[in-house]
Write a structure and sequence with these properties.
Layout (H helix, E strand, L loop, with lengths): L1 H9 L1 H14 L7 H18 L7 H27 L8 E6 L6 H12 L3 E6 L3 E6 L6 H15 L11
Antiparallel strand pairs: 1-3, 2-3
Helix pairs in contact: 1-3, 2-3, 4-6, 5-6
Length: 166
């Protein structure tokens, strides 16, 4: 019982978030809380047990959103042009990006971000590398991955010492 109380103390913000989500999903129906309270409590307990807390930078998140939207639009246009224009290269390949981010949520977030951007797909996360399938391995994807990693670091309030490839 003490473990449950400790989890709830650690996860009160998540509990509030899950409560808000429940309220939105049920259109604020008061009678839904008979089921909602146990669901929110169980969700909070499982969330805290399986997903350790991470610190986020509000400023990093605000900067990440337009960055991600722009890269998504730009990447989508690039992929469409490559598919339709015979002179633009499509040369798929695999690339191993060496992590600068620490292990944990920031790496998972980056891998998911890379997979959501057109022309790239995260294939494997190892201790040292993120393996990415790219649409054109002759392009500038290596520098793009470093830029994405830096933006992800900012979301998590981390500072990276990015090494330059020369």
């Amino acid at each position: 019982m003490n473990t449950v109380i400790i989890y709830l103390q650690k996860g009160w913000r998540r509990g509030l978030l899950f409560s808000l989500i429940w309220w939105i999903l049920t259109n604020g129906a008061v009678d839904s809380w008979l089921v909602g309270v146990p669901v929110v409590l169980l969700s909070t307990l499982v969330s805290v047990a399986l997903l350790p807390s991470s610190s986020f930078s509000f400023k990093g998140i605000v900067r990440f959103i337009p960055f991600f939207l722009w890269r998504s639009m730009y990447g989508g246009v690039d992929v469409a042009l490559r598919a339709l224009h015979p002179r633009l290269p499509i040369s798929p390949g695999m690339y191993g990006h060496q992590w600068q981010l620490p292990q944990g949520m920031s790496r998972v977030f980056m891998a998911n971000t890379v997979s959501l951007l057109p022309g790239t797909l995260s294939v494997e996360l190892s201790d040292d590398y993120l393996y990415v399938h790219v649409l054109d391995h002759t392009g500038t994807f290596a520098s793009e991955l470093r830029i994405i990693e830096e933006h992800v670091a900012n979301v998590f309030g981390l500072n990276l010492a990015i090494e330059n490839d020369c």
